[in-house]
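Before going further, learn to read the protein records used in this course. A complete example follows; check for yourself that the lines match position by position.
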Amino acid sequence: MPYVAQTTQPTEGSRAFLQRRVGLFGLFAGGLGAAFLLWRIIELVVTDKIGFILRPDVYWHGVAAGCLLAVWLLVSVGRPTVRTIHVIETVGLLSSSVGYMAMASFIPPVNRPEFILILALNAGLVARAIYVPSSAKRTAILGGAVGVALVVGVYRTYLGVDPEVFRPLDPGMVDVTSATVARIMALGTLSWWAVTIALTTAASRVIYGLRREARKARQLGQYTLLHKIGEGGMGAVYRASHAMLRRPTAVKLLPPEKAGETALVRFEKEVQLTASLTHPNTVTIFDYGRTPDGVFYYAMELLDGPTLGDVVAMDGPQPAGRVVRILAQAAGALAEAHGVGLIHRDIKPANIMLVEQGGVPDVVKVVDFGLVKELSRDTTASLTNADAITGTPQYMAPEAILSPDEVDARSDLYALGAVAFFLLTGEHLFAGATAVEVCSHHLHTPPDRPSERLGEPLPPSLEDLVLRCLAKKPEERPGSAAALRQALLACDGVAPWEEEHARAWWQAHGAEARRSMRPSEDLGVLRTIPVDMVRRPGASSGED
């Protein structure tokens, strides 16, 4: 059966959601009360009864609507706690109810003020049940508290009314005492209010109760999505929280319609291999699987930092020493992956990130191993879509274009060489109006020396190594990622990029560098990933 996450303590997302919903309740219910008040005032003005605007019932009507609008104003300020939000909501609702009761007490009995009061309080309680996530029990308690005061108030109001007032409305009211009239009105009010409590309680049970049940945890795969932090051609990445471990997590979702079932099956196998990798420069995979509706997901460590594309966009071409340091770390991650037969296939600036980790700046993280990309014949160079060409055009090895199924570790080294060219020059290796044009350059056009493109001298040993990686023939490239790493560290004439240089860069650009981790979409209601444990890799049975 599906397993879903349980949130035993309020998360920031659930607190913010409650804050918004209570605010909407106050705005809607208070606005509705204010609209009726405005209508009454306009009616008095049009009928030349402007003096009645100062009547107590009009005043108390304004107070009641104001109490609800105050709920909206108070919860909209800052970041109140869940407890504070509940207190504001409860006090506002009860204060508004008292205001409406006071309003009704000044309405002549012949106008049946209890019906007006029931209508006003009913609107408030129904609005709360719709907007505010609340248990059925809490809704019933609040409705009961309002109802007790309502029934007692109606009884006391009619207890002092002369029954003769109702004789024109009901000639049958003969020899009826005020106490009898009060009991009749109180019982009628009680029956109508019981219907209101039943309806609003049922609404809360449906709107909130089922939502709460859907978030109950059963066992594994418990990730609650907080907000979207990025999206690509194959899926979206969300900041998430594990329901039990409470650690920050990134979850990538890959719907089957975006890649096809065959690609997802292949990708699932490669994620299993990625999860076994332990290199410090490889993103750590915590979990993976499929939801019951076929969405493949994997959960990984949350990386709070920029991609290499972000770094160049912020700071332009990078110093040779920093490029060497970045490439050496990335090559180390690739060496471990290649050792277990895992080819990345999509090395590019967007799939290499820089983070501060354990107090160390400029730690490289290689992400998205084995992600299948599909390239359309009629797309621009920056888009991907259909034709089973694996990779991103600007970083695609020639053999990946000609024989996508025959790429090997040396194809990743070509892509890493293109990344090095981009870091050193701030420009892509080849440019073109279409993907086909870019691919043609990879097949036939010799690459420029990075120093020529940059217009400044670069260490010849580093340039030569980058150009070796960009050789058209795989056999002319470095023999392995490990060999490339050693060659990078042995480059002559490269000014070292020390830790103090990295710290200075992060101090200058850290705030902007982490901007990519800010929400790109607020989910509002926290979405929980249900995990199909039957289809999960390694599951032996479908037992709960």
Q: What stands out?
A: Residues 178-214 form the longest helix (37 residues). Residues 1-9, 214-221, 371-389, 520-544 have pLDDT under 50 and may be disordered. The chain has 17 helices and ten strands.
